[in-house]
Amino acid sequence: MSEITTSQKLGMGDLFQNRVIRTILLSVLFLQVGIWVRNYSILLYVIEMTNENPIAVSLISVAEFAPIFLFSFIGGTFADRWRPKRTMVWCDVLSAVSVFAVLLTLFFGSWKMIFFATLVSSILSQFSQPAGMKLFKLHVPTELVQMGMSMYQTVFALFMILGPILGTYVYQQFGILAAVGVMGVAFLCSAAILLLLPADPTPEEERHNTSLMHEMKEGFGYVFKSKPLTLLGGCFAAAGLAIGLTQPLGVFIITERLGLPKEDLQWLMTAFGAGMIIGGGITVALSRKVQPQMLLALGMAASAIGFIGLGLSTELWLSLAAQFFAGLFMPCIHIGINTMILQNTEEAFIGRVNGILNPLFMGAMVITMSASGWLKTHFSIVYIYEMSALLLFVGILTLLPIMKKETVSHIVKGQ
Fold first, then answer.
1. In whole angstroms, what is the distance from residue 324 CA to residue 310 CA?
2. Which of 3, 37, 21, 272 is nearest to 161 (CA)?
């Protein structure tokens, strides 16, 4: 009973008094500025330089997402070996160095090196992100983890709307050289802010006596032995399959179901982003009272309802409402996932668990993204969106054993 009382007393004031949360949120703010300026300025620059060559444009996505498959587990394993603060600072510094190196090549006319900036910062993020999770595990009280993750996710939601505007504005007003400069300065600011974090604990010497391959095997064994993490992996796979089915087909909702020009797709994205911003604030309040697996299930159920609404709708207002509704609960998914990982993983395995689960989601998403075009030629878009909703409900079913366990444990604690 004392734990519950303590958790209820902690609020937003306690959250921002926590040095680690405050520092990480400020660092993420600068990182998001750098990332969104990078994404949109490079996209517009490549389109301009190649006369809208679709292969060149697709290479941007390859440079951004391929490292998730290739380096996520390796980065997570090294993040478990290395000191988290030092890892995050060096990742930001090296991202800035790579950006300024690209800036020099642009001065001499070698524009194709612009892909290098995206590739390097994307690779380094696979080392930095799990290190940030380790810092949460090390320095943030359990009662504040879920609220901290809520605020973390709200910053991402905010930039889903502001990021494209910022990136486009910087490129159109000042050009690619200024945009690349902004990226580098943003990464350096993030690194400088991270220096305010508490000193890293001294690593255990015996951990370095084991080989990298041995530690990788340990990571897989750790996930398979943990029922919550194994079920979360199943949930990840189902969610990835569902999202991958619909990811490339949003434009057909606009053109086929609504009969509008393809440019109106931006309004669906805006409605989703607006829902995420408002939902982030609501989830901060919910996270104090609701278990993370319930948050995750709630978010997936809302996304399923949103997919059903989008697939069936032939009116713009209804499609916008469905997107807004799905966006409203999207923070529940991200916060529920991150909190579950932190609560069910020892500090020594945080990186490797992240490195296993994230590629699982991305791999499932890429499989159905690759198949969605073929499915679109054989099935109605309505059926595809309903199939996505069904996959999300399958993901919810995988969480039921954990929900039952938590419910029983809370009844016992209450007695």
1. 11
2. 272
